[in-house]
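== Fold encoding ==
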Amino acid sequence: MLLHYMRKGAKTGLIRYTLFTLLILAAGGMVFMDVGGFFRGGVQRGDVARVGHEGITLSDFDRSLQAVLRQQGIGPDDAWRFGMVSQILSMEIRETLVAQAASDMGIRIGDPVVAARIADLVKPLAADDATPQEALNRLLRMQGMSEAQFVGAIRRDMTAGLLRGAFQSESLRIPDSLARDLYSYEKEERSVAIVFLPDSDPGKAVSAPTEADLQGLYKASGSLYAIPERRSFTLAWFGADLARRDIVVSDEELRKIYDGDPEAYALPEMRTLAQVIVKTETEAKAIVAEVKTGKTLEDALKAVSGKKDAYQPPQDFAREGLFPAVADPVFSAKEKDIIGPVRTPLGWHVLVLEGIKAPRTQSFDEVKEAIRKEEIDMRAGEKLSALSDSLDDRIAGGGTIEEAEKDFSLTLKVEKLLDAQGLGEDATAGLSDFEADRANILETVFSLMESETSPVIEISGGRHAVIRVDRVVASSVKPFESVREDLVKRWETQQKKLANIARAKALIESVKSGKKTIEQVAAEAGLKPDIISTLRREDAPSAPLSPSAVAAIFDSSKGDTVLAEGVQGQVLAKILDIRPGDPSKADPSEIRALAGKYEREGGEVDLASYLGHLHASYGVVVNEPLLRQMYGPGRETP
């Protein structure tokens, strides 16, 4: 379970895990790369990208993409058209690069820290009668993830958060004069006259499609009406418990192991530390002063900052688990000493030495059960390997899964027809009992021929499995007649939009040439301008204005008339007035907060540059053909 910490040394490395932030300060630039046709070898058929040694599977990426699209209320076609598919994949690549670099350097956010973060996330979901685990299960169902996937995502996000924090702490300071100019820009307001021409009513009837029109649209629709290849298969597995049966390790054997390597059970000197990490030296010094008055470190932090978020309760640290800047003063201090302020890439540390634990060797009784478990695990691993080899030999020799079922205590599951994403003919997900292994199993299934059985593969829970493909149903396309009604609707929608764009272009040209006013062209369309007296650059646009329409309005001069695509229609907008923000009327803290936003963005530029370095070092390959096949437009050209 998540709340069981996987390593006994997890607590000794909390600060060490953040060593990665030192390297991040070396520089920065990654935007989405290799999209737009780039495709080289090294990407598995079911991967949308390969980052270093790790593939981003289609099933994992699709889960992330669909979650975002559900939140935004956007369909796959619009997501592709607006570039959201590539943007979301870019973020996945960015996070994978960070995770790989951290892993290769031995950096890892400790399980206690991840557990505490997840506890905070599930707390709002826990009803009075729900346990934390039940609340977590509810969250997992909402996210469509397994517990292992969710823990991994949280751990990766926390690592990236440390990285971003380091860059923000080193960002450029914007001078007050420039901050005031930025305020004038950001707080600018405009008055505009808007004429909205909906695509659904282009002002004239569109002709009905001919049979040739529909056939052409059908042929151009590519994968829109495709029925993907589906496969049914038999999954057979045995568990690690099979290998652990009858393994007994006596106390005499354990004693022999212990006596044979006593140094393995030596613990270094440890220091029990409580600490806070704040952004400025001024805060840190104030906290030290409060502690010297007799306050606890936690209460001192509360007195200075009004919050306790930056407090870390006492934990044991070995010297190698600390930054040198922290380790040296900590290991030369006496019990109850106040250490700091000390600066690291995380910020300014203030620490209190709560206790000192001398180096010692753990007794046999202390470690006996741990040695027993380790020895049983080792022997079980060897036995598992032998069982897997034996099963492989049986299958390679022509044996069937059913014949091997009894000899290897196999559990069999026959899975219905599934596509490469794990969806059945009714669009419901298969492999519901194998969420953590879905991508691995499907990749294996779609690499086999019909009636072929795979070699033994490892799946979660210490299980070993073989897979036989029982049936392959080739990909096909929905018959023309079954989608005729949808084709007619799509044709009419496209033609109305094209007609509306042509009408809008003609109207804007008549206004720009001075032949007509915006009021006159609106009257010709049976409309009248809608006056928006206060349109702010910083506000989120509301229909019928789209982000691109607002951008066009704020890129124009007073008196200009612009044409832009709005929400399901075309927007004609005349700029009536422009009013820059007035910094003299603003609270200085508001101006400084705005400058801080730009300073943080400067840090993001540096971060992006470092990610560009990682991109070059690890190598990133994007499977653009697969992306286009799965998410590209249904070839909706008229």
About this structure: The chain has four domains: 10-175+600-631, 188-225+481-579, 230-246+380-474, 269-358. Residues 10-175+600-631 form a domain with the Triger factor/SurA peptide-binding fold fold (CATH 1.10.4030.10). DSSP finds 22 helices and 19 strands in the chain. Confidence is low (pLDDT under 50) at residues 1-43.
